[in-house]
Amino acid sequence: MGGSGRSWLADDYPGSVATRHEQMDRDAATPTAVRRASGAFAADGSLVAMTYVEVDGADAETDFTVVHPMHRGRGIGTALKAWSVLALQREGVRRFRTGGSADNVAIRRANAALGYEQDEEWVALTAPDSIDAGT
Question: Is the pTM of this model over 0.85?
Fold first, then answer.
C-alpha cells in the first residue's frame, strides 16, 4: 500500500464537489488541539484508515473518514470513527456532527450504526455543459 496515498484519499472518494477532499499537505495532515486525527494500521505499520475531526470546545465535526480500498467492507471505518467519538467524549466533547454523500453508502451506514441522525441535506448542483440560447 505504499505510495503517496493520493489514489485512496483524494481520487477514490465517493460523492460530488461538496464531499471531495484535496490531497493533504504536511500542515493539513498534522494534528493539532483543534484538528484531531486517528488512524488504523496494519500489522506491517501501513495506514489502513484515517479520520480527521475538528473540535471546538464541547462540539466536534468529522471532516472525513476514509479506508484503503483493500480493507473496505470489514467495519474498520465504523470502528475507527467509534473510537474517535469515545476518545473525544472522554475529553468532554458532547455534540458530534458528521456528513456523508448519498453516493457513499458505507459511511452513511457507519454513521447510522454509531447513532448519528440526519438533520439536514445538501444538494450539489452542476451547470450544464452548454446552454441552449433558444429556450
Answer: no
